[in-house]
Amino acid sequence: MQTVLHISADFPDPLVPSKTKAVQNLLAETDGFRHVVYSLNRVSWRRNIAMLSFGEDRTAIAYGAPPYGVMLERFLVPVGEAIARDIERKGISPSLIHAHKFTVDGLVAAVVSELTGIPYIASLWGDTDIKIVEAKRRMKPRFKRLAREAAQLLPAAPWAERYFRKAFALNDQHFQLLPVMTAGDKVLVPVLTHPQRLVSIFALDAWRRKGLDKLLEALVIAARSRPDIVLDVYGTGSPKSLLEVTDLVQASGVASRVRLKGALPHGEVQRVMNGYTAFAMAPRRETYGMVHVEALLAGVPILWSENRGVDGLFDGYEVGTRCDPNAVESVAKGIHFLLANERRLKENIAELQATNLLGPLRRSGIADNYRQILERHCGEGREVFRRAAQQSRG
Q1: SS3 for 42-76, per residue?
Q2: Residues 54, 134: one domain?
Q3: SS3 content of the chain, % helix, strand, coil (to 5)
Q4: Cβ(119)–Cβ(151) below 8 Å
């Protein structure tokens, strides 16, 4: 059995158990490999490194580094050296390293790779990775080398691939799409709605990021020709965010058309969405947009943001519409389109479901894709490491 070494700052561990389960779910669904995980946790204004085992082949790492990515690589190099020493001490011989976030985990993976000779692949998270690449312009040559030395780059969506292909002058051979596993995975037959209703689902703490203010402004415009328009918003958050969202709705001019519905259990999300005309959310920032995919699987057309989230996944298939999330008129136009074309959009979605063209976005399809990626890049197990792993850098 081949061993894959995973380096991830987004893996739930005892130090920060509330992290997203995206990476955890991916590994759980991809059998046939030994998955060894090092979960990274930064602590501001400390310099030391500590490790804590939290299960078989699971290690949490706490490391000191300044906030805001100050001296980013300087503080990540020792983390990579510590991981290289630890796997050598434990006698773990990986065939491949997977850095689950290019600009952070990738810098660590590159150190481990240099010290051990193990190749690495890296996921591209469009939101975070692009933000860091653009903020750290002096590091662009380093990131470009990191990308070129990776055995493969794995963008979650096509728009992220487009960005990195241009930014680092790469060709298509460098990339392989790897979507994110959603919590809801059922396929539900689309149903026509009467009266028509829109739905949006997000954590209320993230209302700015998810563009709720622009969505409400767009509803004001849409209501001029559609006075019956209704938007149900599901989600919960902190008391502060609930007050902010409530105030925002009350001041919007469409308070009577917007209903805050509270939390939805994960198992109920798709069933509830299935009864709506369309899913409307145009985030300002979004790496993937799992709930957009869940909506399509549930038979519901979607409004999404251009060059964010799921953009590019459905080119050539009319399952909704994209918009400029910062332009109210564009969001309003998208809402009009969804309401006016419900029947046609749902017929298109039903056809995609029937022909299994949405299969690659379901958990089993993503696991099959990932398994093929690992098989392609895993070489023979390495019994002997370069002794450089025992050395430290100045």
Answers
A1: EEECCCCEEEEECCCCEEEEEEEECHHHCCHHHHH
A2: yes
A3: 45, 20, 40
A4: yes
Two tokens, residue 30 = 């991809």
- Tell me the C-alpha distance between 225 and 248, whole Å: 22
- Asked whether the beta carbons of 245 and 218 are under 8 A apart, the reply is no
Report the domain count for the chain: 2
For 117, the 3-state DSSP assignment is coil
Joined tokens for residue 222: 């849409």
CA distance 353 to 239: 39
The first and second tokens of residue 32, run together, are 């046939």
Same domain for 177 and 57, yes or no, is yes
Is 111 in the same domain as 87?
Answer: yes
Domain with 242 in it: 198-359
**Region class of 316: left (phi > 0), else alpha (psi between -120 and 50), else beta:** left
**pTM given for the model:** 0.91
Q: What distance lies between CA 71 and its chain's CA centroid?
A: 25
Q: What are the tokens at 9? A: 């700052």
CA atoms within 13 A on the CB side of 326: 4
Residue 187 lies in a domain: no
Six-digit token pair at 104? 């952070």
For each of the chain's 394 residues, which pLDDT tens digit applies? 899 999 999 999 999 999 999 999 999 999 999 999 999 999 998 889 999 999 999 999 999 988 877 778 889 999 999 999 999 999 999 999 999 999 999 999 999 999 999 999 999 999 999 999 999 999 999 999 999 999 999 999 999 999 999 999 999 999 999 999 998 899 999 999 999 999 999 999 999 999 999 999 999 999 999 999 999 999 999 999 999 999 999 999 999 999 999 999 888 999 999 999 999 999 999 999 999 999 999 999 999 999 999 999 999 999 999 999 999 999 999 999 999 999 999 999 999 999 999 999 999 999 999 999 999 999 644 444 443 344 444 3
Instruction: Please say whether the beta carbons of 303 and 283 come within 8 A.
Output: no
Using alpha carbons only, how large is the chain's radius of gyration in Å? 22
